[in-house]
Amino acid sequence: MIEQADVVVIGSGGLGASTAFHLANSGRRVALVDQHALGSQTSPRAAGLTSQARGTDVMAEIAKRAVWKIRTFAAETGEALEFVAAGALKIARFPRDVAQIASEVVRSRRLGTGIEMIAPAEARALNPFLETTGILGVIWSPNDIYLEPSQVPRLYARAAAKQGAVMLPHTRVTGIATHAGAVTGVQTEQGVIHCETVVDAAGAWLRAVAALAGGRVAAVPTRHQLLITVAFPEVAASQPITRIIDTNVYMRPCDGGLMLGGYEANPRLVPQALPIGYDVGTLELDLGVLHDLADSVREQLPIFQRVPGEIAIREHRGGLPTMTPDGLLNVGPVPGVRGLYVAGGCCVGGLSISPAIGEALAAWIVDGKAPMDLSALAPARHIGMAEDALIEACRLRYANSYRAVGTETNG
Questions:
Q1: Contact in structure between 206 and 322 (CB atoms under 8 Å)
Q2: What is the pLDDT of residues 271-295, one digit of tens each?
Q3: Which is nearest to 357 in space by CA: 27, 64, 40, 32?
């Protein structure tokens, strides 16, 4: 058990493991602590999709940086991360959504993410499972990628360990000590780690961990599900990620089969504190939600009407990503507690941007200032909301995840 560190990172999903690596790579003494096995909770249950077509400049810049870091992961970390550079389609079936994707193209041209409008027929040529019925507009993001999600936290943790970070799996945090409003250490079941900086990247436990230091973070764990079919001959790994805006549905190839996921209109939120020892792997799932989502895009993606049927479902999984009221992450210092930082409120799209978020937060901690303007992600922006208002705002944001309702759109 380590007794002293410069930084203790609590939570070893994509955001926590990335932050730990970038801190260790900057020469900081880091302890990465998790009450479960490293990288075992929501991150490995993600879809593994990048999305550079974002609703705000800051998120588009972060997504662009994250894609570059995934592509250069091996050179930076010495770990081989596998990904597929298949690109991504984003489809509008209503005029308001055509206007949205047109604005995303304008943003792309300004920021250099390579996104362009294409004809529905061109989209079908890229994804043979896509029918053009009812499609009013499509954008094509040629530089987007997808990957098997468990690689991200696992490889970042391994790379961090090579840089001297101490890995503490199966170690529950029971307190965060403070003095005169500043962090002085982290209490675990195995002893105290003295430190002046803590990163709360605890995912579904984000609010509970911040509260140990007297801090507040506004984010609500929300169930997100997907399914993966068995392999069948028509699927090629090179077929792109495909999203349909108004129904919040996505698909991509996955190990010879197809992945289908999406954002339900009435999601299951978990605002209460999770029981001690709770494991996301035991989360109650509902396959009916995914059947309803598949039915909502039956004209554009009729392939999923064959599920179940001659195409069987190989895997049905779900996690507890944290939602915020505006669809933007919580990244930066927690108000009122010096030395406490947060990396959370991932709004489902956190795994794919964790390389860039971890890099930015580590630089902020090391240099004393953020490397870019992250004020839009400030944890302080929603902490005064009443609990009922917070829950309802997070529900609405989840249910409209692909639509820009004056805020952000996710991956």
A1: yes
A2: 888 988 899 999 999 999 999 999 9
A3: 64
Residue 121: both structure tokens together? 């027929």
Q: CATH assignment of 7-46+150-219+325-386?
A: 3.50.50.60
CB-based contacts of 343, cutoff 8 Å, min separation 6: 15, 16, 19, 199, 200, 201, 329, 330, 331, 357, 358, 361
Cα–Cα distance measured from residue 391 to residue 320, given in angstroms and rounded to the nearest whole number:
15
Distance CA 140, CA 30 (A): 40
Confirm if 218 and 339 have CB atoms less than 8 A apart.
no
157 neighbors 167 (Cβ within 8 angstroms): yes
Q: What is the reported pLDDT for 245?
A: 97
pLDDT tens digits, residue range 198-225? Answer: 999 999 999 999 999 999 999 999 999 9
- CB-CB contact of 51 with 250 (8 Å): no
What global pTM score does this model have?
0.96
